[in-house]
Structures are given as structure tokens and as C-alpha cells.
Amino acid sequence: MTNNTDDSNTYPTQQQDPPGLTEPMMPEPDHGEESYVGGGRLEGRRALITGGDSGIGRAVAIAFAQEGADVAIVYLPSEREDAETTASWVEKAGQKCVRIPADLREEDQARGAVRTAVQELGGLDVLVNNAGYQMGRRQSIADITTDDLDRTFKTNLYALFWVTQTALEHLASGGAVINNSSIQAFQPSEPLLDYASTKAAINNFTVNLAAEVGERNIRVNAVAPGPIWTPLQPATQPEEKIEKFGEDTPLGRAGQPAEVAPAFVFMASNHTASYVSGTVVGVTGGKPVF
């Protein structure tokens, strides 16, 4: 669980180049480094987290470690600095952290990352498909190039297929797949047309795969975050949107990565979610996910 009760919403104007790093962010996000308190819900579990270097991925890695799981994190080579910080928090919790630099847009690297995780962890119990890409600095569909589509769809969908296909060769009864969806699948923003399309597809993927692998006692679910303060925001959003980031939610603020991680813990645990599959849980500050 997390003790995060911060209700501030102060985000000074700032921008980075994609994919973005944690250290330059003002304020720095809360990933649960000090606020998350574990309870042994994932004792002995082995988890692979894509995009585990920063943002929600880092928060999930920290929470899983606090709950007793060993983890492998996949990250772009350019994000090594953030990945090392994540690994240090996992190891501080007394758990193993396997570092896997890879570009998941390349099929061989995506599948290879899974095989490396399985080899280094001695197996696999939980897959978290968290890696994602968006770009909100445009005005209309006319601004979306083929290169934009390739980057967004290969990161958000192709990689998810490749990684999941390979992981299912190793997941046994009691395994769990958790996909990172988005409020954009339900309330899409015009500048994020391609990104929102991939997130709607991820919801469909989640429901369909849950039906397929249920007979193997493997659960498949998704978490749909709302506006969460991660490096992806200053790296992909226009400057003018940063200052008011999250103000349009019923709670009136953006969320922290540490506030999303408990939903992933819930979905990963056979103690809390043994009969939960094929569903999408919103962590949106009050925005509806239906």
C-alpha cells in the first residue's frame, strides 16, 4: 500500500526530448521509494516489467519488490541512468533486479528480453506490459506521419504482442499478465489520436487474451491510468499543458506513479485477484472508464 496523500498540483513549465528522464522533472515524481509499504503479497513471484526504468514502471518495480517479488526491468539504452536508480530501490528492498536494455520495437529484442528475464530470474510468474509512447505536440491528424505511427504502434502494440507471445511460453498456472492501458482509451484527446487508438486496442487485447488463456489458469487484466506525473509528460506534451496537468480530473490534480502501482500489485497477486481476469481497472482521479 502507499501512504501518498499529496494533493498539490504545481507543475512549472518544462520540456524534455523524448523519451524523457526523471532527474530534470520539477517536481520529481513519487514512485513509492519511501511511501510504499509492502505486505508480502507477491512473495516468491518473478516479474518482468517493460518500461521499468521510470514513471509507472519504476513505481511498479518498487512496489513488487516491497511485496517480495524479484523483477526484471526492460528499458531503452538511453534510459540506463533511470534504470539503475530503479534497480537500486529494488535491491534496497532485498530483491533481485535484472537489467535488460532493449528496443522493444525490434521483434528479436522484444522476444529476447523475455528469454533473458526467464533465464536470470529462473522462471516467470507475472508480465507487466508497461512500455509506451505518445506525442501530444501536434494539432490534427494531418500532423501524424508514418514514422509517428510506426513508433507509437510498434512501442504500444507490436511489442506487447511479441513480449506476451513469448512470455506465454513460460507462464504457468497462476501466472498473470497486466497491460498498461489509459484513460485515453475511453476519453481520447485529439492530439493523441494514434496513442488513444493503441490503448483502445490494448483493452480489446486484454479481454480476448483472458478468454483464451483462462483454461490455463492465467489471468489477464489491464490498468488504465489517468494523468500521471511521469517523464513522458514533459517529453511529449506542449509546455502550456504542463502547468494545468491533471486539473481536469474530478480530484483536481494529476496522480503520482506511486498511486498507480497498488493496482498492479492487486492484479499480480493470487491472494487478492485470483478470480479477476479480463477487466480494466481505472486509476484516473475520477474520470470514468466505461
Structure description:
- The protein is α/β, with parallel strands linked by helices.
- The protein is built from 8 helices and 7 strands; from the N terminus they run βαβαβαβαβαβαααβ.
- It has a 7-stranded parallel sheet with strand order 3-2-1-4-5-6-7, with helices on both faces.
- The radius of gyration is 17 Å and the shape is globular.
- The N terminus is likely disordered.
Output the keywords:
seven-stranded parallel β-sheet; 290 residues
**How far apart are the first and last residues' alpha carbons, in Å?**
26 Å
Bin the helical content: 25-40%
As a whole number of angstroms, the C-alpha radius of gyration is: 17 Å
Strand residues, percent = 5-15%
Mean pLDDT: 91
Stretches with pLDDT under 50, minimum 5 residues: 3-7
Query: What global shape is seen?
Result: globular
Largest sheet: 7 strands, parallel
Number of extended strands: 7
Count of discrete alpha- or pi-helical segments spanning 4 or more residues = 8
Q: Which class of secondary structure composition applies to the elements?
A: alpha/beta
The helix/strand series, from N terminus to C terminus, equals: EHEHEHEHEHEHHHE
Main sheet strand line-up = 3-2-1-4-5-6-7
